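anyone else get weird line breaks when pasting these?? whatever heres mine. first is seq + tokens for prot A
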Amino acid sequence: MNEPTIIELGEMKIGGLHVRAAETERGTDSAVARLWEQFRSSDRCIAKEAEARNPSVTYALYAEYNRSDNGACTIVIGQEVSGDDAFEEGADCKIVTLPASRYAVFTTRPGPALEVTAETWAAIDRYFETSAYRRRYSGDFELYDAKASDPGEAIVDIYISVTDEP
């Protein structure tokens, strides 16, 4: 795996379908995989047109970490939105506001999306064992844009919030 690119991003709001699960729960029968299946087969959490920032980009957000609870976090699959009323009233959608942060951006190799993201997350875990950067756990996300449009040859960028403070 190549060294990540370090970038700064401003505050963002990500909204969509959500579940609470262990951060490390990945694989074909995981809560994340089931949430992706629900996302692909549902239109319940599609942002109102005026609220969607970039409708062609999908985010898989990991936020609201509880490090003492086996790494549990809230996982949201959806879009970047501009406001807190981005979805139709009554929709079971969640909006999470990510604070402005520095991010280490890791890019997967081309391949099946579930496989290459799981592989890259494992490499990310190893990277932080020796890196000068530390994870902030303020919100991390996978970005699925045009490079990920072919599910069998997807290239996904994974953004990890970081700090260089001890």
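and prot B, same format (seq, then tokens)
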Amino acid sequence: MTRSSVLLGRLLSETLRSLLSIVVMSGCGLLVGFRFHAGPGEIVLGFGLLLLLGFGFSWVAAYIGLVAGSVEGAQGLGMIWVFPFVFVSSAFGQVLAGQGKLGHDAGPDGALPVVGG
């Protein structure tokens, strides 16, 4: 078995796990009263965007795991790139435009289409 097949198998299994998570979260949301305000095509495209984002993050995590010297090193390196992305994005609250340097840095970001979509 080639080394690349192990890597691709792991990435595809992560993508399938992400799909399962999306289906479970959407089902729970529908059960508690969430309703989509878009057509079926746009909903499927939104789910596809989430899967593509998860697949991209899986590649970054796989690369970090390959270059790290140990399990602890991979865990530490994995957290370093996630923290700035999450806390500067609009995932936790509205962007404070015009509030000094922080408002400028927290402007339109890569997470906005996924979080606000």
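btw re prot B: Residues 1-67 form one domain. DSSP finds five helices and no strands in the chain.
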